Amino acid sequence: MAKKTKWKRYEGETFEYSSQLLKKNWARLHRGDREPFPDAAFVKAHAALAPDGDAGDTAAILQDAWRAYHRGDFEDAFLLGGSLGLIGANVANKAANIQATYLEHEHDAKLALFLDVVHRAENLQKAAPDLANGWYLYAQALGRYSQGISVAKALAEGHGGKIKAALERALEIEPKHADAHIALGAFHANVVNKVGGMAARLTFGATREAALEHYEAALKLAPDYAVAHIECANGLAMLFGKAKLGEATQHYEQAAGFAPVDAMEWLDVELAKAEVAD
Prior knowledge:
about 280 residues, mainly alpha, about 0% strand
């Protein structure tokens, strides 16, 4: 858990979900990843992942970790989640992925954060293969890591198959996992864009049609979710270029107009606003 450098702080809008507000807003906050609410019942159901002690106390710390995540204190979320062992792996991993994606600009530090998530998620998969986000956050981190070393190199090293399999597993566990649909759409689009339609289909099982199906599924599940529109726009640009520029722009404009409900969504909306302004 030790880190060599201090994490850059999030400086956007603050979102507080104290007391009962976290539970009240949980479904809205987690419409993308379908993470179960971390109450004492959840801790008891996954007692093998939790530290010894009272389930209620563990749940309280886990909820504090998620509050930190949603308000943008990603380092605090990472540390609190990590202090609980594997039962806190998802909040620690999600915080690290957001930190590396949006706030960490040093290349090697960014890749190190993603690899840390990959390894922690692998341990969670072994201990609790029924938790969808153990697979999704692994795939998200490995996908971002792959983009960092180049998609071509990542495919040559076999990361593509691991990402695809993990996302498909997440959707087997939780078919309404919009984030997994988004990521699987991006996988298909990136591979088709990089190696071409025929090679993508034959070698990696990636197709333009599958990319569009997954983007459409995500938008149906979470129509007001900025990242779904952003990734769909990026996919359309990769797959169709100027032919779909107007449609891609519309998705960015929609994303820019959404009211964010937490720090991650604020970062996504601001990204969309910047794209529209350009």
